[in-house]
Amino acid sequence: MTILHQAITAGALSLPQPYLLFLGDAAERGYAKTALGLADWAGDRCVGEFVLPECTVTTGLARMTPAEAHARGARSLLIGVANIGGVIPERWLGALVEALEAGLDLVSGLHERLSDIPVLAKEAARLGRQLIDVRSPPPGIPTGSGRKRSGKRLLTVGTDCALGKKYTALALAEGIRARGVAADFRASGQTGIMIAGAGMPMDAVVSDFLAGAAELLSPDAADDHWDVIEGQGSLFHPAYAAVSLGLLHGSQPDVFVVCHLPGRETIMGMPQFPIPSIRAVIDQTIALGSLTNPAIRCAGISLNTAALDAAAAEAEIAALAEAYGLPVADPVRGGPALERLIDSCLA
Q1: Sequence-separated (6 or more) residues with CB below 8 Å from residue 10
Q2: To 10 degrees, the CA torsion angle through 49, 53, 58, 64?
Q3: pLDDT tens figures, 250-269
Q4: Strands 131-133 and 76-79
Q5: Rounded to 5 degrees, what are φ and ψ at 325?
Q6: Are 212 and 109 in contact (CB under 8 A)?
Q7: Same structural domain, 309 and 198
Q8: Rounded to two decimals, what is the model's pTM?
């Protein structure tokens, strides 16, 4: 996979690369989505992965110690875990200090700031290393205006968290550009920002300014230009729906694509809440999104079929396409199904 470079200059990052990806003690792929996303979309900037003994997830990159990674050219340890609450557990600290001692800076997209952890701040100062927190919104974000902006916008939305909104946005932006149409991927979460080098960490923005932050993320553009905006959370998530709604109102999408993981029955980390139907997500997104864009429409469905073989994935895609009368595709598998989804987005 390749990555598109954004034209955003405000808040652009310059991260020390290449990366050694830290997976900590992740036992579920959904919580290692940052490392997996970097490996898939910026693999040329990753030298390997570093894990604790309890980790059962892998990016497929070579496992190595921080010293080995530094010898192979790595310049930072990037925390590739997106856990509940965005915290840095005490059990990780020994590994993070080891990375500092090996000559690596630390890069994190978690809510808890590296510099707020005394042992890390002390060791970084002693060793002359950088502690870089990506999840830091720029100052001066305005409240949302609701003003209609020029250009076209596509937003990925989901039935849950961690099921493909970022991958879908990246693939659609790449596919649109391949047709000679101007398009930019607009990152709204820490992993997307790390991949693209710029963006807006929506879930770190004070709630009153979420819509305004989304407006800054996708400013006025040429009438034939597309911003493909990475979605966050889910309108049906009991913890994160506020971020999803602010992003929806501020991005004012002309088109949205619903992302879904077949087989997931409950909200990740909240088994008491069932996954909503795709129909419910379509209806809710139109009902709420029409406040700032009355012409909003659903262009299709994106499926994460990583757990299915090719035949089962094809059958699932065909069944949902028939059920909803919309194009359905797995953006990673690509092929004619993805082309039909892009056709629908651009129609």
Answers
A1: 138, 198, 216
A2: 20
A3: 999 999 999 999 999 999 98
A4: unpaired
A5: 65, 30
A6: no
A7: yes
A8: 0.86
Note whether residue 144 is domain-resident.
Answer: no
Buried b (16+ CB within 10 A) or exposed e, 156-193: bbbbbbbbbbbbbbbbbbbbbbeeeeebbbbbbbbbbb
Tally of domains in the chain: 2
Residue 74 is assigned to a structural domain of this protein: yes
Determine, yes or no, domain membership for 247: yes
DSSP letters spanning 283-313: HHHHHHHTTT-TT-EEEEEEE--TTS-HHHH
pLDDT in tens, 122-173: 999 999 999 999 988 989 999 999 999 999 999 999 999 989 999 999 999 9
157: domain CATH number? Answer: 3.40.50.300
List the domain range (segments joined by +) for residue 94. Answer: 19-133
CB of 45 within 8 A of CB of 67? Answer: no
Note whether 89 and 116 are same-domain residues. Answer: yes
Q: Are 323 and 132 in contact (CB under 8 A)?
A: no
The angle formed by the CA atoms of residues 93, 99 and 103, to the nearest 5 degrees, is: 145
